[in-house]
Amino acid sequence: MRHILLIGAFSAMALTSCTKEDTTAQKTLEQEKMEYQARQLDIERQKLAIEKEKIAFERAKDSIEKVEQQKAQASVARTAAAPVRERVVERTVYRNNSTASSGSYEGASDGTYTQAPERQGISKAAKGTIIGTVGGAAAGAIINKRNRGAGAVIGGIVGGATGYTIGRAADRRDGRVQ
Hints:
Helix content: over 70%
Largest sheet: none
Radius of gyration: 45 Å
Structural class: mainly alpha
Strand content: under 5%
């Protein structure tokens, strides 16, 4: 008899707990639906705001285009009404006639002078050689522990050659050398 009462009590608790979960699950499902609908409304509001901004932008763009067209038409009207002026430019050419006393004229110096080419500074090949030599010498001295001097010399030669090659390629890209 005790077993039957215990089983009955246990069954009653199981059934009531299941119905509570179902009602809780239903409420949760309804809450989720409400939240989903609220999110959808927010999205629709944002879309509407974007559309309003787009319309305002288009109106502003149209008004700017109209103003620009009016300015263009006004400038065309002004140029059509304005008298045509011709521009006259006079140039004076000075000739260097230092040998005028002998009657011979050497050189065609007609006022045009060629400028000396500007100095371009140190080339990238030279920079690469210097940096490569110093870096290679330092690396060679560090790597060769038995004879640091020989390591520095070998590293300097290899680093200098590598730096020159890389710098020369950069000079070719820049058009400094062919």
